[in-house]
Structure formats: C-alpha cells, structure tokens
Prior knowledge:
The chain is of the alpha/beta class.
Amino acid sequence: xxxxxxxxxxxxxxxxxxxxxxxxxxxxxxxxxxxxxxxxxxxxxxxxxxxxxxxxxxxxxxxxxxxxxxxxxxxxxxxxxxxxxxxxxxxxxxxxxxxxxxxxxxxxxxxxxxxxxxxxxxxxxxxxxxxxxxxxxxxxxxxxxxxxxxxxxxxxxxxxxxxxxxxxxxxxxxxxxxxxxxxxxxxxxxxxxxxxxxxxxxxxxxxxxxxxxxxxxxxxxxxxxxxxxxxxxxxxxxxxxxxxxxxxxxxxxxxxxxxxxxxxxxxxxxxxxxxxxxxxxxxxxxxxxxxxxxxxxxxxxxxxxxxxxxxxxxxxxxxxxxxxxxxxxxxxxxxxxxxxxxxxxxxxxxxxxxxxxxxxxxxxxxxxxxxxxxxxxxxxxxxxxxxxxxxxxxxxxxxxxxxxxxxxxxxxxxxxxxxxxxxxxxxxxxxxxxxxxxxxxxxxxxxxxxxxxxxxxxxxxxxxxxxxxxxxxxxxxxxxxxxxxxxxxxxxxxxxxxxxxxxxxxxxxxxxxxxxxxxxxxxxxxxxxxxxxxxxxxxxxxxxxxxxxxxxxxxxxxxxxxxxxxxxxxxxxxxxxxxxxxxxxxxxxxxxxxxxxxxxxxxxxxxxxxxxxxxxxxxxxxxxxxxxxxxxxxxxxxxxxxxxxxxxxxxxxxxxxxxxxxxx
Length: 664
C-alpha cells in the first residue's frame, strides 16, 4: 500500500493554501483559537466535538446571520438526534443566497443541442411562477409534490418551488418502469404530479404519454397534473387523465406578479423523500429535512468536494439518483449547475466528455460503471477533447478497479484531482470522499468526510485499523433521515441501520480504514463472500477479472445452501462475443489465484449475456443471491427498477436446473 507507483495526484500550493477547507482551518484559528496541523487532526476534532464543529460550519457559511438556534444538538442519540432546535431554514431560500449576475445559475444541454444558460434572475422568476401555481392548487407545508421528469431545468424549478411553499418533493425518472414508479409514488401520496410526456435518450425519442396515463390512474391522491411538454414534438393532447384531475401546462402558467416568498419552516421540516433501490424489497422512502440538507451540503460540497462559486458543476445522473440532489445542492454555493439530459455514450463513448467540453465544466461527477465501460473502449478523451477547465472528477456508485483509476488519470484527465466518494441515499451526502489537502492513490478513497465518525468494526463492535470490517458511523449527522415513509414506529428505520449495533449506524458496506485515514470499500456486507469462515469482498474479484481484456463485466455471489454447503459461482460477460472456453476459464482462475488467493477461486465460471444492475449502476449481488437460494424474481426486484431485468429470470432458471440436477 502507498507505494510511489500508486500515487496519482498530490495537492499543490493552491489546494494547501486556498482550498475551502484550508480557508476554514485558518478561520478556525482566527475566530476560535483552534489550530490543526493536518486533515487528520481536523477530522478527529470534527467527530469528537459535534457542537464545536457543526456550530463552526454554521458560522463559517453565514447561517448565524439567518437564524438563531437554541443548541447545536439537543439529543445526540441515534436514531432520532435533534439538530439545531429553534432554527428556521428554507432550502430553496438558501439556494438563492449566493445569486449573482456574473454567472448563470443553470446550464441546460441536451444530447445534440446548444447549451442554454439560465440566469439567477430567470431561475428566481420561474420558481416564483411555479410556487404561485402550487399555492393556487392548495399546496402548502407538508403536502407532497411528485416529479416524473428527466434532468431538465423544470425539475430544478419544481423542486425549489415545492421547497419554497414548504411542501415535500419526491421524484422518479421516466426511464423507470411504471410499476417501479408506482411502488414509490403511491407511498408518497402526492397531491400534484409534475410530469413530462416524453424524452430523448441515446438518439431515440420515448413517448411516455401511455405510462403517464397509467401513473395518474394509479395515484388516487393526485388532484393536479402539471405537464412539462416534451420539447421535440407538438404539444401533447393524448395524455388521458381522470376527470377529477385538473390539468395544467407548464408553458402556460401565468406569471406570479409578485416576489418569491419562502415558507418559514423549522430546521427539521421535511424537504424531500428519496428512495432506496428497491432491489431487496419495497423501496424505502427516506425523509430528509430542510436544515439537515442545507448544513450537510454546505459542509460536504464546500469543505470536501471544494466546490466554489466560479465552478461549473456537472453530474451524469437522472432525477432518481441521489447525486441529482447533490448536484442541485451546488446552488447553495453559488456554483453554476450543468444539467445534461441524455446518454453519456451518445453519439459515442466520449459523449459525456463532449458535453463537459461544450459547457466548460470544471467539476464532473460520474458513476464507476460508466468510467469502467469507457476504459474498455480504449478511449482517450484527453487527446481528443479540450477539457482544460476541468479541475476535479467525482467518482461514485461502486468501487472502481485499479486499472480504471489509472485510465482516468492517464487518458481521461491527466493531472486532475479524482475524488472517489462513498455515501448514499440514506444521508444524501458523503461518508468518505476527497480532500484537497491529501494525496490520491490508486484504489483508495482519500479520507472520511469531516463530521463523519466513520470506522470499521468487527462483529463484536471493536474498531479495526488496517483490517476489513463493517462500515459504521458512531455519531449522528444532520442529514440522517427524519424517518421513513409509512414507518410510524420507526421499525423499518431501526432495522435498516441499527439492528446490528444498537445506537450505531451500520451502512452495510465492508470497509478498511488505514492509519493514514485512507479508506477502501470492498462491497456490500450483506453480499459478502464467506468461504470457510474467511470473508472476502466481491470488489477484489471484479478488479482482477475485469482487468482481463476478454471480460467485459462480471458478477460473483456466495450462496449458503440448505444442506449447509456453500456455492460461489462467477458469471462473466465476455468481450465482443469471445468464447468462454477452457483456456479463458483457466486464465481467469489463474489470475484470481495469483493475485488474490486460492479461496477466491469460484466453484464454477459461467457465461451470461449481461449483468443486471440498479439504474445507478450497482450490480445486483443480493437479489441474484436470493434468486439462487430459491426466492421468486418478483420478490427481489421489479421490472423497470433495474437494467437487464430478464437476467433475473435467467438466474432463476439456472437455480431450478441446478436443484433438479442435484435431486436426480
């Protein structure tokens, strides 16, 4: 570990002296007499002195001029910690706090279109118009507004307008199947649905009018449909709706005729509902607060990601992924948010980076699966495109193989700071990620985020250093869920995070925290490979197998069997139709044995057409494992919530044939 060959990036003078966190450290010394020699000292203080750290964040970002509070944390116990009681904050209002005429608020760009800039003044005017419309519809604090929208400006406007009136926002992307959308939005019980009737993706047009009619029929609480017309066809008039629903057209909304007014809401007023993937059961509706999100995203994007007002911030995402919310959070810093509505691989593998070039993006976020796929094409964007303004890449979604780290450094963005981020929908933020004060090394997340008391624990709750354990958070965070939807006794909430270690948050990932605070995430702990009592992370196997040129993708699971046995198959997608013959199987086996250990060698290696993933790119290890143990496909996932849903039926057939062979 930490050899010179693994070093990809080191902070320069600008990062060490002028980054947001460096300025914050100087401010702490000047304002509070607190001096820290390095990031490690700062992080340890931030997790030991919750009141000191979070009050410092509050003051550093000027919230003391906005509202007072009675105390920083009333009750630090988890779940249910009470943050900043007495304070009143509106997320939408804070998003306009750093508005300026010098830079646009948003830049919207489609696959083949010209970037369109939206000024802060125009954004405020549009939010005011939609907020006034919502109020005319009877929407007020606590009501729920749902979006069925792609990554377009109207989605940002609708979120901000919903927050401005004190209502609760939730969203699903139109690329979700209708049953998956209904599984989420029925729980939310919205009174208003803001929806598009179609979209473009990958050079194709998708008509969503039939799906929209199904949604409206399946959401009995909806009383108003606000239609965002698809810009590539004539205005839609074929969206059948129930007769009791009043229909409105976005482009025909009247001007508000008055300034934008923000509801005065307490710190813990619900802001939005995010949704779990739904790959292990009914999607969980995760409710987060105005104040918690404001404070957390000021800290995470400012002191971690180093987002600045002059940044142009692009994230390749849909509205269903929590990083879309993280993207909108860039407005809190006065940054220009770039909204790309399209496929990252259109018209070719470099499509997203052509968008970055066209919009002069300075920070770009992407999923690890997309970067790995781009690496497989042997693309060289750095040689073909002008990415000069780019100063950082944010990588998230899953673990990235060492070869992909090097490809990003060598062929995508040489000399650029790569931030690998581990966080999640659960907190809508970063648990471990980047710091401009620390070096970047292959395969390693730089550090736990400030304020995040992250640790690796063994089964008995003992902390581990340099050894893999469960990722836990031992102190509360402001953006932890207020609650789950339809969970009045908080039973699902407790079972999701606090059953294993009472009073301590268990994230569900395997993690190693080294003495230098660098972090390695090795996959989901609920999909752990456990052979002969030895735990192994699936990410280690993927890093070896997918480095082979003949392998495009792979999936490994460990299946505990009813007879006490253990079955560990490896499924591979070969490159360009390469045959999985005895020679390739031997090369895979040899690579795993030599680079990992004999215990990591699978029981069988099988060819599959595709690996199913969540829509955010995570491999469906747990659902496939459950199917191989005999679960019904319908009980582990739903069509439209994952890619290659038909592969789950393939795995079910495979399990059935195996069981039949074992019984004969």
